User: What shape does this take?
Amino acid sequence: MAERSLGEFEQLVLLACLRLGPTAYTVSVVDELARRAGREVTHATVYVALRRLQEKGLVESTLGSATPERGGRPKRLFRVRPEALPALEEARDALLAMWNGLDLSRAT
Amino acid sequence: MSPPLPPWWARALLRRLLPADEIATVLGDLDEGFVQRARERGGRAARRWYRREALAYVLRVGLPRGASSLGATEAASMTREIRIAARALRRRPAFSLVVVLTLAVGIGTNASVFGLVDAVLFRPLPVEDPANLIEVYGSSERDGNAGGMFQGFLSLSYPNFVDLREGASTLDGAFVHSQWSVSVAGDGEPERVEALYVSGSFFDVLGVSPLLGRGFRPDEDRQPGADALVVLRHGYWERRFGSDPAVVGRTLRVNGRPLEVVGIAPPGFRGPRTTQMPDLFIPVSMIVDVPPWGPLWQNRGLRLFNVGARIADGRGLSDVRAELSVLGRRLAELHPESNRDRGLQVLPLAEAKAGPNQRAFLGRTGLVLLSVAGLVLLVACMNVGNLLLARGLSRQVEFAIRTSVGATRRLLIRHLVTESALLFALGAGLGVGGSLLTLGALDGLRSPAFGGMTLDVGMDLRVLTFALASTLVCMLLFGLGPALRSALTPAGTLRRGGSGLSGGHWLRDGMIVGQVALSVVALTAAGLFLRSLDASMRIDPGVDLEGLGMLSVDPTAQGYEDDELRLFYRRLVEETEARAGVVSSALGSLRPLSAGPLRRATRIDEDPSDAGVGHLVRVESVSPGYFATLGITLEEGRLFDDGDRQGAPSVAVANGRLIELLWPGREALGQQLVLGLVDDPLEVVGTTATAKAASLTEDPQPVLYVPLDQIPTPAAHLFVRGRTASGLDEARAAVRTLDASLPVYGVTTGEGLLADALWTARATAWILTVFGLGALFLAAVGIYGVVAHSVRERTREMGLRIALGAGRGSVVASAVGRVMAAATVGAAIGLAAALLATGAVADLLVGVNPHDPGTLAGVTAGLLFVAAIAGFLPARRATRVDPMVVLRTE
Assistant: This one.
């Protein structure tokens, strides 16, 4: 599953998209990452991650509505595709397995 | 109020760099974020955010896209273009070599000269916010030209500085700085170095943070002799201590006093002067250790200090000038004995950093050098343009063939531009390399001019940028034109055998005219300065320097004082003269043909504390044998002898100029004068002729000789004249015999002193000569190249003419005739320009008329001769062609 392996940031982005559901786009993902994961990132970083995920076939995008705030420009909305779920679960399981039983206060 | 908007340029940039189908959504996302932040945190914060976001997009999306869109094919095709261009250049190795060398010479010399001038005049000092720093000087109504360089900027005394610091509300922080030679011992050989005595606030006001340790605190300059600290210059720390950080905290003995090393200055910092490089920074209260003036440093009449300051926030230079002019007047009223007729003047640090009294001279010299270097670059570029054009024109047939088999004009232009660019790149690379070596060789050079100017030059970003920028400009002006021109092949050229395009003649003739003109100016400048140098070398200094040896000692730094010092001096002369091989020896306090401190001399009937009387004179403390050793002849009265020692009546010997100033039209012998503020009058017992004192090109200067035993100086120069050689070995041995731990420095000969005095004139003359010859060489090569190609073009025509009976000679003559016509016009223009240019630098020249007809005529004739040869050779070669061969190829 090499070409489906997920970087740490890509995982965060995917999870944010899952949480946001149909309203996932660059701005909302940036906000969600800041609010929930405490990660302040630029639009460009999320943009690049979403495009990469799109190339890997893990998300798909559609054009959404325009608003006056956006100068009448449409949004590009992203939706997580089912293909992404096994990859996410695999990543989570790997991480949890490594964490299991580890006590950081006695680790070193 | 209209709502805040995102920066338009950021949006434009994004529009250019993003993929077309993403522009709308990305800009929309950013707009949303912008509006939200504008609402929450205001327009400025929102704009700041937008800029950051746009930059992130540019870096992470735009640039990678741009790079990859060049793609494999684009990169490959660019490499191919370069390879084709390189091949084309390799096919004509002589041509390519000449062009590259020509460009290298032009760009290299320009970069070198710029590096030199920049280091001294332009480059901002490595301090914080240099634009807000100024220097304050005294101004005087009276002391017009007290000698040579002086432009009216006087140092200030310490009490005046304190009044200035307390009283100026337009200044935020001020400091003094004063450079002196000191002896350093401890952790190595004793040596003499330069030390800058500064206020405690020095580093703070300049905004300079030390590399290691600390600077000085503002209060560390109050108690005389109390702040035994020193900060080392970075280069000195490298040289003497091998960059050992453990030096901080160690002790250094400076003039006998132990000072604690508290810090190392950052690299590149050398104080507020670009022409000096002090090795030590010491709090000013320690200046008491520097004889003879040190202990008197707080005397209001003793002007020892330069003053720097920072303009307060919200104030400007004119505010400072206004306030200080009032302050100066107030000080003159409050302290008339020292400040009468004196005011305060202000210079921005940017103008003062080369030394305020030297700035005008250095500025003019710099301008001359830059102008000439620029001229040479211009000549080089015109040459190259010429050659490229000629070569392009001679490839018309090739281009016509290529066009006829389908190559587009755009492709041809691209090939030619690539070739030009490659030539310029190679020339610039070679030139920058050469200038790196030149600047490296000049770095650290100590010029004896202006009492030891030290250069700190090198290839840095500024010089590199200048070199690249000038290369780019030259390429755009001179490289592309010919390339584009020659690609504009009109149809039908093929049929006519390639001789169709004749419009190039005007351009080529124009370039010959221009180059000859520029060469005339450059060579005239060189010629005049060479003659000026020659005239300077023949100036009679008035003292006999041939066969003289000189070395310097600083006994007070070793602890000698008062009677011990006098005894040392007397014994030194005795010891030296006792040696076999020594004809005579003497001590003097000042170096011949070198600037020295001036003191005020007033007649006995005048009030010496009145700052409005008296004259500034050069005072030399000498041993009795000085006059004989240096060949100064007595005119009236007597010279010094062993009886003129401390305790005996105070005497002096005056030169002609001094007598003119103090006792015009009167008998000098027996007259009395007072030096400075000392009460003890001196009686004139002898007079001498007026010799050159501080420089070879000065107006006559007043000089007063006093017996060394009566007015001993802390340091002195030992002069020695040997039977066969200069006697320096004997002199050194004498010093060692008396005191083996006393450092000896400044060892030189009379010839060396003369050479030092001529240093600037010599350097200028030689630099201009190199440039002038370079210009001549370039012009010659250019003419040769142009004629060669022009004649090559017309080979068929010439062959026909010869076949039809015209003599070869007449064919050559017509070719040369064209060149000479253009060259003559060029020479005429050049002469006119040279007359204008040299008139402007007339006062830098010595003993030669700036419009000297001999030089002008010689240069013009020489150039025309060279032009004739340069035109004759290729023309003659072309006529060797067999007319039958030419006709057959038709």
